[in-house]
Amino acid sequence: MLIHNYDYLNVSFFFDKIEKVKSSVSQVYKNSLSKFKIKQLHSLPGNLKELGFINPISGGAHKPMFYIWNNLEHQNLTFFISNYEDGLVNLTKNIAEKSRCELVDIALSNDLKFPKYLFRKVLLDGNQRYIQLIKDSKREFSESGPSLPYEKLVEGHKSSFKDNFSNQIIISLLEYEGIDLKYLFTKNDEGYSFERIEW
Q1: Are strands 128-134 and 103-109 parallel, antiparallel or unpaired?
Q2: Strand 190-196 relative to strand 8-14: parallel, antiparallel, unpaired?
Q3: In Å, how far are 20, 86, 101, 120 from 151, measured between CA atoms?
Q4: Tens-digit pLDDT profile for residues 31-55
Q5: How far apart are CA 67 and CA 184, in angstroms?
């Protein structure tokens, strides 16, 4: 994927095998899983933007849909993307808890009037590192949780990311997690789609 080929992008990363993550999705939804249409994917659709996964809109009015997948470059990592602007981050945390795996959620922005940047790492013990910047009229920055060991190694880091949190900082944080975004969407992607067909 070209890293500039979007206005707004939310993606999550589970540090676990895809079949275990799929099983955890089933555990999270339990009795309501029948309200989803589930398909196996041998490649991701080429029209992710038209489907609302790239530049997603706020949730509530439309039914959620999300994909989980992996590829040859990251076989022990499962990717997650949804058609909701918030990235369904409550769901991703619940899935990670069921899978008993670590999780990273990110939000990246390009050329938006009010961009939003997010990096969240959920650890096995349930603790999390949360960093978010929303550039609106107030320029709201927030962070919580203990700093990750590699944060001081990221270029541009000072005592805090408050003044320069950006796509590049997030990409650098991902690289220390062993995640390369250029392999986010590849020809080797395989996974599952979950589409809610009724409330």
Answers
A1: unpaired
A2: unpaired
A3: 29, 24, 21, 13
A4: 999 999 999 999 888 888 888 999 9
A5: 12
